[in-house]
């Protein structure tokens, strides 16, 4: 058993052989996803631009906020009948 190598040792050796540089092609640098996300957050917080156009956004808000249930709630609080 002294001359035998374990499967793990053989696998590591094969992996090292595969990792040798071939043709000198270097992979481009990539930032970690959390770094990119934080950079984008800082970028958009610094800018004063509207990310969504004002008119379509206003339409979405009115359709979401002016539901009949939302109108009935203040009436119920005041004691009015619908």
TrEMBL record:
- What SMART domains does its record include? H3 (SM00428)
The entry's cellular-component GO terms read:
nucleosome
Per its UniProt entry, which superkingdom is the organism in?
Eukaryota
The record's annotation in InterPro entries points to: Histone-fold, Histone_H3/CENP-A
Q: Name one GO molecular function term.
A: DNA binding
Q: Which family does it belong to?
A: Belongs to the histone H3 family.
Its recorded name reads Histone H2A/H2B/H3 domain-containing protein
* Species of origin: Adiantum capillus-veneris
């Amino acid at each position: 058993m002294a001359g035998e190598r374990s499967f793990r040792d053989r696998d590591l050796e094969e992996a090292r052989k595969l990792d040798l540089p071939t043709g000198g092609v270097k992979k481009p640098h990539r930032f970690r996803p959390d770094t990119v996300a934080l950079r984008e957050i800082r970028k958009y917080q610094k800018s004063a631009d509207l990310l969504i156009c004002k008119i379509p956004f206003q339409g979405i808000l009115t359709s979401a906020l002016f539901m009949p249930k939302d109108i009935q709630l203040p009436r119920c609080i005041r004691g009015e009948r619908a």
